[in-house]
Amino acid sequence: MRIVLFTFHYPPDLSAGSFRAAALVEALAKKLGKTGEIIVITTHPNRYASYKIKTSDKLVDGNVKIYRKRISNHSGGMFSLALAFCCYMFYALKQSIKVKPNLLIGTTSRLMTGVLTMVSGFILRKRYYIDLRDIFSEGISDIFSKKNKLLGSLFKKVFSYLEIKVLSKAVGVNVVSSGFPAYYQEMGMDISNWSFFPNGVDQEFQNFKRSKSNQKQKEVTVLYAGNIGSGQGLENILPKLAKKVEGRFKFLLIGDGSTRHLLERQLRKENVQNVEILKPVSRTDLIMFYEKADLLFLHLNDIPAFKRVLPSKIFEYAALGKPIVAGLSGYPAKFLKEKVPHSFVFYPTDIEGCVECLTQSTECEVSIEAVRKFVSQYNRASIMDSMAAQLLVTASKG
User: Are the folds of 2-200+379-396 and 204-377 the same?
Assistant: First the structure.
């Protein structure tokens, strides 16, 4: 049996999709053993221009083959990313035709990897499976509607059409958030063959050494690690928030993204002195920063689409056993409140609500038993093992 996995990002690249894809490949490879092989068709690390690491064009590791396409530099913005993806898409189609797989899998957040998987399935006359990590049609529409309602409406129609095509023709669809299915049901889609295998806690964070809090020091260190883009909307809250709590809290951001320049501009405008932004680092280095932090910060922009998502960062943060202050609404807010007792949730962009959560979090006593329970329930390896088993059953039917 031969399975092709399309993923735009793959380790050592830094992204939620990258780590998820690697965990799925590992689970599939173990189950297949000598009876089959996994072909990963991806790119060289490109998520952040500020994080570069060398990789080979082809790597063989047991029953896993990894093919990488080198793409041009991009800013992370929609149009430069679209051009980079077109380059990857033609390469991926060519490679998939060469290897002649039994099943195609696409893990997708921006829909285009899903379109690639569907097109490849059509050309090869093979079945395909979609791992859906985001609702692109709603997200892109909500973001552009803030600037131009007509453009937002046009994008929603175009990408909704593509989404329905991709998902309805798939032999199976997995969603990473329980907030997704209702959206597609309202569009009249049959979701009876869909599954829910969420993100989870990776091994690196399961044995995290929880250091004693430094919250009695003059300033409490609040850490945010991840993408700095329109989805996070940090420029809409952090500058004024940091100014308001100056002398009590200091913020350390580790990451990069398409709106980092907007954030930096607002920080300068507000003359903020208690925010530091560092370039992305490897997970090994990131753990050292986690150990020194007192609080962990998370924020999603205030748009309807983000009321359905379940950020992978929640799982990583929750396993660290440190208080979490999160600007969320809808399903992710409900999930965090129910599953993570050491979390403090405020409505996105609500500065006063965030200040209150920051203050309350400094008095939080984290239950190690609650952390262990969460890690056990959302162990990434176990989740991917179940998903791999389902995928192999699907593959065997074709």
Answer: yes
- Distance, first Cα to last Cα, the chain: 11
Q: What is the pTM of this model?
A: 0.94
**For the segment 228-262, what is each residue's pLDDT rounded down to a tens digit?**
999 999 999 999 999 999 999 999 999 999 899 99
Please count the CA atoms within 13 angstroms of the CA of 36 that sit on its side-chain side.
20
DSSP secondary structure letter of residue 130: E
Per-domain residue ranges of the chain: 2-200+379-396, 204-377
The three-point CA angle 368-329-167 to 5° equals 100
The DSSP letter of residue 274 is S
174: left (phi over 0), alpha (psi -120 to 50) or beta: beta
Integer angstrom CA distances of residue 186 from 90, 103, 197, 273: 34, 29, 21, 47
Q: What is the pLDDT of residues 75-133, one digit of tens each?
A: 666 777 888 899 999 999 999 999 999 999 999 998 999 999 999 999 999 999 999 99
Rg (CA), the chain: 21
Q: State whether CATH 3.30.750.80 applies to domain 2-200+379-396.
A: no
Residue 116 identity: L
CATH topology of domain 204-377: Rossmann fold (3.40.50)
The most distant pair of C-alpha atoms in the chain lies apart, rounded to whole Å, by 64
CB atoms within 10 A of CB 18: 20
Tokens 């952090």 appear where?
Answer: 238
- The amino acid present at 323, given as its one-letter code, is P
Question: Which of 321, 318, 320, 319 has its CA nearest to residue 332?
Answer: 318
What is the CA angle 185-187-188, rounded to 5? 65
User: What stretches of 109-182 adopt beta strand conformation (E)?
Assistant: 127-132, 172-175
